[in-house]
Design brief:
single chain, 144 residues, mainly beta, Lipocalin, 6% helix, globular
């Protein structure tokens, strides 16, 4: 059982960008991406982020997309879940479920900062399309 932490609750995505070593910002899901991260008191994290304007499948069946539709759908979202441990300036996500199969069984370590009612998670040394980047993801408390 996770102790009560300031992470607990659901947060809404404000921005996700990757910063290259040259200082260039890359928005993997676009500058208007949407998503949620939810930290539960019993120690689990659930993350889903996606591009705002995703192309629709030609049929209303989640398993009925063409190869092209499936590929576009996969490349315009990311999701993962599993147990987490919070250490104040760092959170460790133990990935047990993920849209990227290579993440299953990994530990995703994020630096934690609280800035004016926002949560910023960052990961230095991340890989993105052949580059080493620092990923920055900013969240605000979600309002239902």
């Amino acid at each position: 059982m996770q102790k009560k932490t300031p992470l607990i609750g659901t947060w809404s995505l404000l921005e996700w960008y990757n910063e290259t070593e040259a200082g260039e910002r890359i928005y993997p899901l676009g500058s208007n991406a949407t998503g949620y991260i939810s930290y539960t008191q019993d120690g689990f994290v659930f993350v889903h982020m996606m591009s705002q304007n995703r192309a629709l499948f030609s049929v209303h069946d989640p398993f009925g997309g063409t190869i092209e539709e499936d590929s576009a759908a996969f490349k315009t979202q990311i999701t993962y879940a599993g147990p987490y441990e919070y250490y104040g300036d760092q959170v460790r996500h133990q990935v047990t479920q993920a849209s990227c199969p290579n993440w299953i069984g990994t530990e995703q370590v994020r630096q934690v900062e609280f800035l004016d009612q926002r949560l910023r998670l960052s990961a230095a040394g991340a890989s993105f399309q052949g580059q080493t980047v620092t990923a920055f993801v900013e969240w605000q408390r979600a309002i239902a």
